[in-house]
């Protein structure tokens, strides 16, 4: 059923009206758009975004939706370094009122409703964006939240949305650890696995090398990831 829903969603085109850009840290920017009333998504999903105001090479790119469905605006966050791709250069040229196109939302990275199992989110770097959406939605639905642990790993200690996440921690079932080295990350994972030995689920997002290494680490402990 999820695959059919994704196929249906990916065929639908949504116009997003640009509002403003916010700098989160060096090279990390959040692009904020009007929230289309007809656009619905599950916290954690992503879309396929297309530049429409000019012709560029490879005009479409996938990005996680950084905002929660309960928020009043629509956000995506991305890293833009020197000499960016044609897509990223074009998106930095957006002015208020200009539009981009999105197909979707799609993807299985979301916590299913009416579940009460413990959940572990493992984020690396810019991979925090889908989890930012999820925990903002947890904040909006405090009475329905699972017990959630977030391990946010960044060796450079550039923790995006840190203050916001810490505020949410105080009012929800979210327990967060900001982790700067791989040894501590694995120790935190081991601790979670030791106290939740049944019906545990984990979700992983971040750089390819981190996903590869952490997935391998968990596989060696006979733990299969949720997505």
Automatic annotation (TrEMBL):
Cofactor: FAD
Binding site for FAD: 61-64
Keywords: 2Fe-2S, FAD, Flavoprotein, Iron, Iron-sulfur, Metal-binding, Oxidoreductase
Pfam families assigned to the protein according to its UniProt record, in alphabetical order: FAD_binding_8 (PF08022), NAD_binding_1 (PF00175)
Domain FAD-binding FR-type: 11-112
GO MF term list: 2 iron, 2 sulfur cluster binding; flavin adenine dinucleotide binding; metal ion binding; oxidoreductase activity
UniProt-listed CDD domains: FNR_like (cd00322)
A biological process term (GO) from this entry: pyrimidine nucleotide biosynthetic process
Matches recorded under SUPFAM superfamilies: Ferredoxin reductase-like, C-terminal NADP-linked domain, Riboflavin synthase domain-like
Cofactor binding notes: Binds 1 FAD per subunit.
Protein name: Ferredoxin-NADP reductase
Organism: Salirhabdus euzebyi
């Amino acid at each position: 059923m999820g695959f059919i829903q994704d196929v249906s969603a990916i065929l639908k085109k949504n116009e997003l009206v640009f509002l403003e850009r916010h700098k989160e840290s060096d090279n990390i920017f959040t692009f904020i758009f009007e929230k289309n009333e007809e656009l619905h998504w599950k916290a954690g999903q992503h879309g396929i975004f297309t530049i429409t105001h000019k012709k560029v090479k490879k005009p479409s790119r996938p990005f996680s939706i950084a905002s929660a469905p309960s928020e009043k605006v629509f956000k995506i966050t991305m890293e833009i370094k020197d000499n960016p791709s044609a897509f990223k250069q074009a998106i930095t040229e957006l002015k208020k009122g200009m539009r981009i196109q999105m197909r979707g939302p799609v993807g299985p990275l979301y916590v299913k409703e009416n579940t009460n199992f413990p959940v572990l989110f493992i984020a690396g770097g810019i991979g925090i964006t889908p989890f930012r959406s999820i925990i903002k939605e947890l904040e909006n639905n405090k009475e329905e939240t699972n017990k959630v642990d977030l391990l946010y790993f960044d060796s450079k200690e550039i923790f995006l949305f840190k203050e916001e996440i810490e505020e949410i921690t105080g009012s929800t079932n979210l327990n967060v650890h900001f982790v700067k080295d791989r040894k501590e990350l694995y120790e935190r994972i081991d601790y979670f696995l030791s106290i939740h030995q049944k019906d545990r689920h984990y979700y992983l997002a971040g750089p390819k090398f981190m996903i590869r290494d952490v997935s391998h680490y968990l596989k060696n402990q006979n733990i299969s990831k949720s997505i």
